[in-house]
Target: Two-component system response regulator RegA
Amino acid sequence: MKFLLIDDDDVFADVLARALIRRGHEVERAASEAEALLMLGKGYERIVLDLNLGGDSGLKLLPVLRRQSPDSTVLVLTGYASIATAVEAIKLGAVQYLAKPASVDEILQAFQQIEPDAALPVCARPMSVRRLTWEHVQRVLAEHDGNISATARALNMHRRTLQRMLAKKPVSD
Model:
């Protein structure tokens, strides 16, 4: 299989690429949207796309990948998993959506299992309210192309309050 890894996290991408190569796959990497677009004509069978590419949303790149490489299967990986982004990724053409850190075996299995498996266990502990708030803020921020003022208006909060909230690390579950 020929893979294209689109991820700006060099360490994660290196580890994943080496593991895929050890399993007999051909792997090429792109660290940005621009690099990925230059590489698309090379006939990749599988594409692993990070949701956060240097502060930009990988979801913006997903429709372009599907148009320019319709025979490729796209899997979205993210360190900021949420139901909203998972649904959006699937709507835009991704076949699977995994939260980081995902092992190579989980990634390969996700490519094999294109149809959802009802037997997979559901997380016993739902996301906290703080985490849901963080995810909502991130989604609204993405909808406004990273514009803090427009996002603050949409969330009906003061711009400085939003800036302080965004300056903190993401809330973990």
In short: The first strand starts at residue 2 and ends at 6. The beta strands are 2-6, 26-30, 46-50, 52-53, 56-57, 73-78, 96-99.
